[in-house]
Design a protein that fits this description.
mainly alpha, Heme Oxygenase, Chain A, binds 4-amino-5-hydroxymethyl-2-methylpyrimidine, globular
Length: 222
């Protein structure tokens, strides 16, 4: 009988907020095939800006994993894989934006996006523990994985022209990567002080709120 992990406990406890982030009306509208394409384009342009800010955040986690020395578990390699994937992701955003006629150079970050990026920047600080930053990283990736995987289920009516986008985060290997991040986080939380565990849980909740705000913004409900 496997032990119940910390992330498992949190996901049960915060199920409502978690589902709010992974089953948001924006995602439902993709899945139901009635998405407003202008909302999709807003999301695309705003997420490009977000992903650019996400790179130094992930790099800071890479540094923290390395400095945490006893990396016998291969955390650095998993996170490095994440950095490499972001390189590909940025090219994909440029290609996709061109396809939809979205001019990336003229995108102005909206309020929810600015606040989310500022939150990421605050987590870059060396004062923020590896465990706390890693929880945010795991949650950010996993919310996208679960959201977009939902749009690819058998009974979904996702428009064909949006399938590639959903595949990007909803595919199985991205799912395995999210599981690796979850294992990293649970291993860290197992040995963390109560104080760090408390901070990490609060950080998870903030990620969930930012993700909901980000979908709201894309959906044009701010
Ligand atoms: C807002 N959350 C947001 N954008 C993303 N690209 C991800 C998560 C996943 O990387």
């Amino acid at each position: 009988q496997a032990k119940i992990t910390v992330t498992e406990t949190w996901l049960r406890k915060h199920r409502y907020l978690y589902d709010g982030a992974t089953r948001h009306p924006f995602i439902r509208s993709i899945r139901d095939g009635n998405i407003d394409i202008s909302a999709f384009k807003t999301w695309l342009g705003q997420d490009y800006i977000f992903v650019r800010a996400f790179v130094p955040f992930v790099a800071s986690i890479l540094t923290k994993a390395y400095k945490g020395s006893d990396d016998g578990n291969g955390d650095v390699e998993v996170i490095l894989g994440g950095v490499a994937a972001l390189h590909d992701e940025i090219s994909w955003f440029k290609k996709e934006a061109f396809k939809w006629g979205v001019q990336l150079s003229s995108i102005v970050p909206q309020k929810a996006n600015q606040e989310y990026c500022r939150f990421l920047e605050s987590l870059i600080s060396p004062e923020v523990e590896y465990t706390v930053a890693a929880v945010a990283f795991w949650a950010i990736e996993t919310i996208y994985q679960e959201s977009f995987a939902h749009c690819l289920e058998d009974d979904s009516k996702t428009p064909p022209e949006l399938k590639e986008t959903c595949q990007r985060w909803g595919n199985e290997s991205f799912g395995e990567y999210c599981n690796s991040l979850r294992n990293i986080v649970d291993r860290q939380l197992e040995k963390a002080s109560d104080d760090v565990v408390t901070k990490a849980e609060a950080t998870l909740l903030r990620v969930l709120e930012h993700e909901v705000d980000f979908w709201n913004m894309s959906h044009g409900r701010t």
